[in-house]
Structure formats: structure tokens, C-alpha cells
Design goal:
Strand order of the largest sheet: 1-2-3-4-5-7-10
Strand content: 5-15%
Helix content: 40-55%
Number of helices: 12
Order of helices and strands: HEEEHEHHEEHEEHHEHEHHHH
Radius of gyration: 20 Å
Structural class: alpha/beta
Shape: globular
């Protein structure tokens, strides 16, 4: 099946509503006829540079716990931002982020620091889990970053499987400048993506900006588009090439890569052997062989909807 990259302007014109789209106010979720197996999730607060408030944060977790699990044929997710930037970081004007730090002033011992700390911890864990849902999405997530990708934007992008950016992309692990250590994933994921080099520690300690070329040099992004306009075509092409492959093989590959990152080689081998002992019995194996021999009419069945209680 052959598909062709489409520009963001034509893509917006042909966008069709996704079943999840109406559920969220700060995310735009759609699919496009020219990208039949790709679900696009866009941060949708362009007037705020897609800064993430508490509501959007919850929506990100809710959306990515469902995308790729609905049996709708989704084989890849394109994560992007509406407007001129990817994500301006946390929306510090949203008081809900910080209200939990003060505890319940009316409760007994509400001014006790250890109790307030224990009460606030659950909010941090909830915020971490929302972004981890992106990492744990059963299909690959490709992040297309244009413009600003600051603070929480780097946290979010670090959860994607593949990252590409426009030439004007600007990144910053900004939290240290706000008086806190990044606590929703960057300090844990970013070094595993690019290494624990002196440059990485410099970026984490200073909060300095780094540009697209620096991001490419350290391996945070795999490609830079030739122009801002071309970013959509670049990201679409990657999503298309992923979605041409067996969805079973791709899903198992992602699960194995994530597992092996956090375990020994021996444990990773055991993990993929367990998965492949079933996956290799799929009809996709024969179909993939046919496709590799030049067959252009190979159709893979969609992944089934995940069962729930």
C-alpha cells in the first residue's frame, strides 16, 4: 500500500474526527485519509504556546492510555503541537499545580511539613504516570517538534519513540531555573536516550537552551527537516514507513526495546523470546515475507481492541 506525505495545510483540510476527539478540550485527536493507520495527537493550546495546565496534563494520560488500544487500525501515533510551537512547558499560571504543596489548611496537622510532603507526592506520581502513558502506548509514537520545546515539553518528547524537529526548534531542560529538579521523566529518560555526557549534565544543571543542531548531535532527535513546512512531511513519512510493517512485529519490537533499556541483556533476551514464541505464529510473518518479495497488496489485520473489566 503506497501513501504519500501531505503538507500540514492539506492535512488540516482533510482531517477527520477521531472517536476520542470530542472527549478532550486541550488535545486535538484526528486521523487523515492519506495516513490511514496513523492517529495524530496535537497539544491544542496555541494561544498559550501549548503550555500544559493541569487539565491538559490529565488529558495526555487519558488519551495515551487509549490510543493504539481501541482496535481502530492505529499502528503509529504522531504527536505534535498546534500553532507555532510544540510545548512551552508547564503553565505556571495554573494554581492547581501548586495548591497541593500547601496541604489542607483546615485539616488537623495541615501545617506539618512531612504530612504535606506525603500528601503532595501523589500528585507528582500522577503527573509522572500521565507522561509514562505516552512511553507505554503499545504502538510507536513519533514526536514532531517545531519551535519551543521547553521544560515539560522535553519531558513529554522524551517519552516518544522517535523525535524529529524543524530547523527553528529550541529545547531547554528549564526546571532548574524555576528552582526545582525536573521530576516527571527528563532526568531519568533523557540521559538514557543520549548518554550521561558532560554536555547533557551541563544542559540539566544550567537550564540553557539548545538548538536543533545540538539536539541532532547528541541524538535527542534523529532528523531535522529542511524547513518548518517540511517537518510535517518528514514526520508523516516516518509514520507511514512504520505503519507498512506488521503491527504485531512493531508492537513486540517496541515492548522489547523498552524492556531491554531497563534490564540486563539476558533478561531482555528472555523477554523477547517469550513474546516471539507467540508472535512468530502470526499470519503476519507470511504476509511480511510476501511484501519483502514485492507484493504490493499485502493487508495486515488490525490489532484487536484491548479487553477491560
Amino acid at each position: 500500500m503506497t501513501a504519500h506525505p501531505i503538507s500540514s495545510r492539506s492535512k488540516d483540510a482533510m482531517a477527520k474526527d477521531h472517536p476520542l476527539g470530542a472527549r478532550f478540550s486541550h488535545l486535538s485527536i484526528a486521523y487523515h485519509p492519506s495516513l490511514p493507520f496513523v492517529t495524530t495527537v496535537a497539544l491544542n493550546r496555541p494561544q498559550k504556546r501549548n503550555a500544559i495546565n493541569a487539565k491538559m496534563w490529565r488529558e495526555i494520560g487519558e488519551a495515551f492510555r487509549q490510543v493504539g488500544t481501541m482496535g481502530d487500525g492505529c499502528r503509529c501515533v504522531l504527536l505534535t503541537g498546534s500553532g507555532k510551537g510544540f510545548c512551552g512547558g508547564i503553565d505556571v499560571s495554573d494554581e492547581k499545580f501548586f495548591s497541593g504543596m500547601h496541604g489542607d489548611a483546615d485539616a488537623d496537622a495541615g501545617d506539618d511539613l512531612p504530612r504535606r510532603s506525603l500528601a503532595f507526592r501523589s500528585q507528582i506520581l500522577e503527573m509522572q504516570a500521565a507522561f509514562t502513558a505516552v512511553e507505554e502506548c503499545p504502538v510507536p509514537v513519533v514526536a514532531a517538534v517545531r519551535g519551543a520545546c521547553i521544560g515539560a515539553g522535553v519531558d513529554l518528547a522524551s517519552c516518544a519513540d522517535v523525535r524529529v524537529c524543524s530547523p527553528d526548534a529550541k529545547f531547554s531542560i528549564r526546571e532548574v531555573r524555576l528552582g526545582l529538579a525536573a521530576d516527571v521523566g527528563t532526568l531519568q529518560r533523557f540521559p538514557k536516550l543520549v548518554g550521561f555526557s558532560s554536555r547533557v549534565r551541563e544542559l540539566c544543571f544550567t537550564g540553557d537552551d539548545f538548538d536543533a543542531n545540538d539536539a541532532l548531535k547528541i541524538g535527542f532527535v534523529s532528523r531535522i527537516s529542511t524547513s518548518d513546512h517540511d517537518l510535517d512531511n518528514l514526520a508523516n513519512d516516518i509514520c507511514q514507513r512504520i505503519s507498512r510493517n506488521s503491527p504485531v512485529a512493531v508492537s513486540v519490537t517496541k515492548a522489547s526495546l523498552n524492556y531491554s533499556r531497563d534490564h540486563s541483556v539476558a533478561e531482555g533476551l528472555e523477554h523477547v523470546a517469550l513474546h516471539n514464541s507467540t508472535a512468530l505464529m502470526s499470519e503476519d510473518l507470511v504476509k511480511s515475507f510476501m511484501a519483502s518479495r514485492g507484493a504490493d497488496d499485502v493487508q495486515f489485520a488490525p490489532l484487536l481492541s484491548h479487553s477491560k473489566l
